[in-house]
């Protein structure tokens, strides 16, 4: 089962070389590795574990870089729809209000199962909240994959 996850938008320090930004946008493995080095990514990897973290296609609801550090960009619906069209997920995860709003506005996501969670670094939320969400996702995927195997038999 293909799984796509959207966070809000990337955050790069001023002066980050555009080659790194471009690689982050175009190479999923690099995107995943760079995400792991952030607080959000570290929390997500703890919650999902290495196997599931690496199984998910990680993306941003808006791939553009904010002009200042903590700026939240509006979701880019066309980008979300392109990712969904390219990846053909059966499950879409959202982390944070921006990502949730973008996916809920996407026509491409209407027929898909969507599971939403708070931003990994949301105030007043704990790692255990994120861990529980990850367990719910994993359980959902396992059950669906078992159903698909039974249906094919």
Protein model, in words:
This protein is of the alpha/beta class and 153 residues long. It has a single domain, classed as Uracil-DNA Glycosylase, subunit E (3-Layer(aba) Sandwich). Helix content is 52%, strand content 12%. It has 6 helices and 4 strands; from the N terminus they run E-H-H-H-E-H-E-H-E-H. It has helices at 18-26, 28-36, 39-55, 77-87, 97-104, 127-152, and strands at 3-7, 57-60, 91-95, 113-117. The protein has a 4-stranded parallel β-sheet with strand order 2-1-3-4, sandwiched between helices. Helix 1 packs across helix 2 and helix 3 runs parallel beside helix 6 (127-152). The model has no long low-confidence stretch (mean pLDDT 92).
Write the layout of secondary structure elements.
Elements: E1 3-7, H1 18-26, H2 28-36, H3 39-55, E2 57-60, H4 77-87, E3 91-95, H5 97-104, E4 113-117, H6 127-152
Parallel strand pairs: 1-2, 1-3, 3-4
Keyword list:
153 residues; alpha/beta; Uracil-DNA Glycosylase, subunit E; four-stranded parallel beta sheet; 6 helices; 4 strands; globular
What's the shape? globular
Q: How many discrete domains?
A: 1
List the uncertain runs: none
Mean pLDDT: 92
Give the CATH class: Alpha Beta
The structure class reads alpha/beta
Helix percentage range: 40-55%
Largest sheet: 4 strands, parallel
Number of strands: 4
| Straight-line distance between termini | 17 Å
Q: How many individual helices?
A: 6
Tell me the fraction of residues in β-strands, as a range: 5-15%
SSE string, helices as H and strands as E: EHHHEHEHEH
CATH architecture tag:
3-Layer(aba) Sandwich
Q: How much is the radius of gyration in Å?
A: 15 Å
**What strand order characterises the main sheet?**
2-1-3-4
Enter the CATH topology name: Uracil-DNA Glycosylase, subunit E
């Amino acid at each position: 089962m293909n799984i796509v996850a959207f966070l809000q938008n990337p955050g790069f320090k001023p002066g980050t070389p555009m080659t790194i930004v471009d690689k982050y946008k175009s190479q999923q493995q690099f995107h995943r590795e760079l995400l792991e080095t952030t607080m959000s990514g570290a929390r997500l990897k703890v919650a999902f574990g290495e196997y599931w973290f690496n199984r998910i296609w990680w993306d941003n609801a808006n791939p553009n870089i904010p002009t200042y550090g903590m700026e939240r960009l509006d979701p880019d619906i066309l980008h979300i729809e392109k990712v969904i069209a390219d990846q053909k997920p059966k499950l879409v995860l959202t982390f944070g209000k921006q990502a949730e709003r973008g996916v809920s506005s996407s026509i491409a996501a209407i027929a898909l199962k969507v599971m939403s969670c708070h931003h990994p670094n949301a105030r007043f939320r704990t790692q255990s909240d994120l861990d529980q969400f990850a367990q719910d996702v994993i359980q959902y995927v396992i059950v669906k994959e078992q159903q698909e195997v039974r249906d094919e038999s």
